[in-house]
Specification:
mainly beta; Neuraminidase; 2 domains; 3 helices; 11% helix; globular
């Protein structure tokens, strides 16, 4: 009994060392609080900005509020990328958007499902397919809400899509028959569509094709890969006849295409309209392609540092960077050739760079 009483007294008695530490802590807290009051609270560098003391630096453009939920509308307020999502999830093949300055961040999907997509000046074109007992193919035009406004049937599988810089016209290229081992470059046709009505404004097969002032009268001519000029009339495209492919310059008003030079597939005109990025046919075996850049004023042709064989229509991002699809990802390469290709966005294809409105 006595032992239990002694143990109880020891347990109830605070230890001297604990009391000493507690006293020191209390003194430190009081001293710190006094200093905080005397020195005026937080340091000035940590004080929150107030309306009477605005920040001295500003962003060069209005940016999206980081606290605002990502939506199609919020992304559209700044520079962004429109592309086909190919991540294997519920949004597979859906046309999606992501801010251009954070391509690795969260993407927002729309209800528009496309195999090729392009967008400019508030208007877009979607080339898609419906697979059942027999496959069917279509082109749909849409606006900033990504809701199809009109749709027409295509005569084959989609290959390339482009919207003019002013948003009035779209080009839809499609294969009229699938590629084969003997004909690895599939026969192609290209229509120019109104982005508001979806009607065919022109079929490039109806244009006069001229080389060195002489009309080309080949029975079979293929057209694909249109890129528009900013004047609302001119464009460049690839044509093929007699077993060879060429770059041609066209006029919608004149209904005419002039052959310029050989070996050019899917040209892409730079924003300043001084250069063409394209896939150069370096060998018919495979076939084998290499990305090149053509200076339109000097005619200088230079290879880009992408050494893999890719037949895609590149998309300009500013004046120096080019985007393109490879396997299931979007890559970038410098038009100056100073930097090696690098991944830009994983799980995406068919990129379209859209500036802020």
């Amino acid at each position: 009994m006595a032992d239990r009483s002694v143990r109880a007294q020891k347990a109830a008695r605070p230890k001297a060392s604990f009391l000493f530490v507690s006293a020191l802590l209390a003194v430190a807290l009081v001293a710190g609080g006094t200093a905080f009051v005397l020195l005026g609270g937080l340091p000035r560098s940590a004080a929150l900005a107030t309306p009477s003391s605005p920040a001295t630096t500003k962003s060069p453009q209005v940016t999206r509020d980081p606290l605002e939920p990502l939506t199609v509308a919020s992304i559209q307020r700044g520079p962004h990328l429109v592309f086909q999502n190919v991540v294997r999830n519920e949004d597979y093949a859906a046309t999606s958007l992501v801010p251009l300055d954070s391509p690795g961040g969260m993407r927002v999907a729309t209800d528009l499902v496309c195999e090729r997509v392009h967008f400019a000046a508030g208007h877009g074109i979607c080339l898609g397919a419906e697979h059942a007992a027999e496959s069917s193919y279509f082109a749909a035009v849409f606006g900033a809400d990504f809701a199809p406004a009109a749709r027409i049937e295509l005569g084959g599988a989609p290959s390339f899509a482009r919207v003019s810089p002013d948003g009035r016209l779209a080009a839809a290229s499609f294969q009229t028959s699938p590629p084969t081992e003997l004909a690895p470059i599939a026969p192609s046709e290209t229509w120019l569509l109104s982005t508001t009505s979806g009607e065919v404004v022109a079929d490039l097969a109806d244009f006069d094709l001229v080389r060195d002032g002489v009309a080309v009268t080949e029975p079979e001519v293929d057209y694909w890969g249109v890129t528009f000029k900013r004047d609302g009339d001119g464009f460049y495209a690839s044509v093929r006849y007699g077993g060879n492919i060429y770059l041609a310059e066209g006029s919608i008003a004149a209904q005419r295409l002039n052959v310029l030079l050989g070996g050019v597939s899917a040209p892409s005109l730079s924003p300043d309209q001084t250069r063409l990025a394209f896939a150069s046919l370096v060998s018919s075996v495979g076939p084998t392609w290499r990305f090149h850049l053509l200076d339109l004023s000097t005619g200088a042709d230079s290879a880009l540092p992408e050494t893999r064989s890719i037949d895609d229509q590149m998309e300009w991002m500013g004046s120096d960077q080019l985007l393109y699809g490879l396997s299931t990802d979007i890559w970038s390469v410098s038009s100056s050739g100073q930097t090696a290709p690098q991944p830009f966005l994983f799980g995406g294809l068919s990129p379209a760079v859209v500036d802020a409105p």
